[in-house]
Design goal:
heterodimer; A: alpha/beta; six-stranded parallel sheet; two-stranded antiparallel ribbon; 10 strands; B: 9 helices; S-adenosyl-L-methionine (chain A); Endo/Exo/Phosphatase_dom_1 (chain A); iron-sulfur (chain A)
Chain lengths: 419, 260
């Protein structure tokens, strides 16, 4: 039973965990077993939204904020003068079940500071997941942090009970990791990732042959990096993400705009705005890579190492590649339609479905809900043939920026001062 | 103009479709249960729900629509948006008059409007899967009050049944005055008068389980602790969690001491 004293621990350990950005509870289809408690939906459900607009789908807490490391970007770093707390295994289990039964959450996202040593910490995380699955017959979503340095046996067990595992790469380059977290290096992160990747692939293969084979981290693994704390450009960041998608079968890479929490001179000063626009542009670029068939080199390159902050990366690509346009939506391939600025993934599919019935004209596209004011510069219609005035990409960009009201217009971060 | 009066159920509406063809009624307006007084010069046609007619219309539609499209029609009905019965009727007429499946003909206005209604219902039922907040009573019933814009209880029943298989629960729609109740075996529809002041401290003290208040406070505490002040974005917050839902969301209700 949960008691009053858990209240204080919860505020400390939820507060310390809030900078972890993964909140997704999707991509795991865990069925309710033997009339037990809970299931996991493939699409995930956000149960609430914080006042900063982020979704709350999981009980995201640290097991403890005691930590042997002293990473400059982390609130729980050893040298930081904060209140420390630690949950017991049973407390985390009771909180999860109590919240889940009231439909507050989709499951648990459990991370931890490292106390004593990696195995000691990992063992406790695993014990919580195991208890939830075996004693409470809990079938909701569980995301565990894989602690770098933990033994393969513990990672193996974690995968048996959790839906998703993540090892945080923290900083996009080794250089900045060394600067801010002298005790850490990328190899220690890559090693468990590699192990998990192989286990996930192996279990999937086994499952194909024998449907009774156990599942292992069915929602795969994810990672996150902190953005804007150090000097990397977007090419380095997206290059790293691309490596994770290609080499590690990563389901998601999260980008966490650095929230200044420290007076450390290696880091942006307290009061520096969070780079929310840049973070948003990185996520947009990430979607283009994962879902729109873009190659990372098409979005950033040596000639253009950073994403535009004032326009989205798809529009940026289109303006640099005007030779690909105009595109006729009545005849073009789905893949090409997806690349038209202002036309999203779903609209592109609708267009392909609707054009079977009649030749689409601009009014039809507007009705389908595409951003026509943006798309029109890139569209051609066979009949009636509309002669698109030959605008330069700079002119188009000007037109679009003047007609749209960016939601960030009043909220531009200091990064724009560079321009 | 003909006013077609039906009982407000989906089956009633489907029967009405049959009779509109049967009696060759023109210039249709639908009305639930009683004739609207606003329409002075209309003739009235009252529909009695008839299973045979329902079956005939539905099987005709089933032949011409995909499985999704067929279910979609019902979902559109549950949206309860303005003029949805008329839009649905024109859509059905288009479907029945075509030899091919027309549900993806987005250049047709009725197809588009129907899709919008389906989307609205879908969005609302997804939200209700998220925004139901159960409270535990002394006799171990988890109950929740909701006020969805669309009539989504029939659509979320299975979700809650397969998720909360080992606890008794009741979800009550205070706008439409009915609920769905799960007794550890089956879900049934129940019509009951539910105390609308069930969020008050007095009510919770009387019927709430011992641990209920603590869990509500823990959840409020958690909700506060995960917010990052320097990223505050009220517009986004409201977009995801519109104010109309707040009165039934534990995290948006002041704690016990702050309530009446």
């Amino acid at each position: 039973m949960v008691h009053e004293r858990v209240m204080e621990k919860l505020s400390i350990l939820a507060d310390a965990a809030k900078y972890d950005v993964s909140c997704s509870s999707s991509q795991s289809n865990r069925k309710n077993k033997d009339n037990g408690l809970g299931n996991a939906k493939g699409y995930g459900i956000c149960h609430s939204y914080t006042e900063d607009g982020r979704c709350v789908s999981l009980l995201k807490i640290l097991l403890t904020n005691h930590c042997i490391f002293d990473c400059a970007y982390c609130v729980s770093r050893k040298s930081n003068d904060v209140k420390r707390a630690a949950f017991t295994v049973q407390e985390v289990v009771d909180l999860t079940i109590g919240f889940y039964r009231r439909n507050y959450i989709e499951g648990l996202f459990l991370s931890s500071g490292i106390f004593d040593n990696p195995d000691y910490t990992m063992e406790r995380l695993v014990r919580i997941a195991k208890k939830l699955r075996l004693e409470e017959n809990f079938n909701g979503y569980i995301h565990l942090k894989a602690i770098p340095g933990a033994s393969d046996e513990l990672l193996q067990q974690a995968g048996m009970y959790a839906d998703r595992l993540s090892v945080n790469v923290e900083m996009p380059t080794e250089k900045s990791l060394k600067l801010l977290a002298p005790d850490k290096n990328h190899i220690d992160v890559i090693k468990p990732m590699e192990y998990l990747k192989n286990e996930i692939v192996g279990h999937k293969e086994e499952k194909k042959l024998n449907y009774k084979a156990p599942i292992f981290a069915p929602a795969g693994q994810s990672t996150q990096m902190v953005i804007g704390a150090t000097q990397e450009n977007d090419m380095e960041i997206l290059g790293m993400a691309n490596y994770f998608y290609d080499q590690m079968n990563m389901r998601r890479v999260y980008y966490s705009g650095y929230v200044p929490i420290s007076y450390d001179t290696r880091l942006p000063a307290i009061g520096t705005p969070v780079p929310v626009i840049r973070e948003n542009r990185l996520y947009q670029a990430d979607w283009l890579i994962r879902l729109y068939g873009f190659n990372v080199n098409e979005i950033v390159g040596f000639d253009q190492p950073n994403l535009d902050l004032d326009i989205d990366p798809k529009l940026g690509w289109a303006l640099r590649n005007m030779n690909q346009f105009p595109v006729d939506v009545n005849t073009a391939d789905l893949e090409l339609i997806k690349r038209i600025p202002g036309i999203g993934f779903l609209s592109a599919k609708k267009i392909v479905a609707a054009r079977k019935f009649k030749k689409l004209v601009p009014q039809d596209l507007q009705k389908l809900g595409i951003a026509y004011t943006r798309a029109k510069y890139f569209l051609a219609f066979a009949t009636p043939f509309q002669l698109q005035k030959d605008l330069t990409s700079i002119q188009i960009k000007d037109h679009i920026l003047n007609t749209q009201k960016s939601k960030y217009k009043n909220d531009f971060s200091n990064q724009l001062a560079l321009f | 103009m003909t006013q077609v009066i039906y009982d407000g159920t989906y089956e009633g509406w489907v029967t009405a479709v049959f009779e509109i063809y049967e009696y060759k009624l023109q210039d249709i307006v639908f009305a639930k249960n009683e004739a609207s007084a606003d329409l002075l010069f209309s003739t009235n046609h009252t529909v009695i729900t008839d299973e045979v007619k329902v079956k005939r219309v539905l099987s005709g539609l089933q032949k011409r629509l995909s499985k999704n499209g067929f279910q979609g029609l019902y979902n559109a009905f549950l949206s309860e948006t303005n003029k949805i019965e008329e839009i649905m009727f024109r859509y059905v007429a288009y479907v029945l008059s075509s030899t091919v499946n027309v549900e993806d003909d987005f250049s047709n206005n009725d197809v588009l409007e129907l899709r919008k209604a389906i989307r609205l219902t879908g969005k609302e039922s997804h939200r209700m899967e998220a925004f139901v907040r159960f409270q535990l009573t002394k006799d171990q019933l988890y109950y929740a009050i909701v006020e969805p814009d669309c009539n989504v209880l029939p659509l979320i029943e299975n979700h809650f049944k397969s998720r909360y298989a080992d606890q008794r629960w009741l979800i009550y729609d205070s706008k439409r005055k009915y609920g769905i109740y799960y007794d550890l075996k089956n879900v049934s529809t129940v019509a009951l008068q539910f105390n609308t002041e069930s969020n008050s401290s007095k009510f919770l003290a009387e019927i709430g389980d011992e641990g209920e208040e603590l869990f509500q406070d823990l959840w409020r505490n958690y909700f506060k602790s995960v917010n990052i002040e320097s990223r505050k974005n009220t517009k986004l917050h409201l977009q995801h969690m519109p104010k109309r839902y707040w009165k039934n969301l534990t995290e948006k209700i002041p704690d016990i001491k702050g309530r009446i």
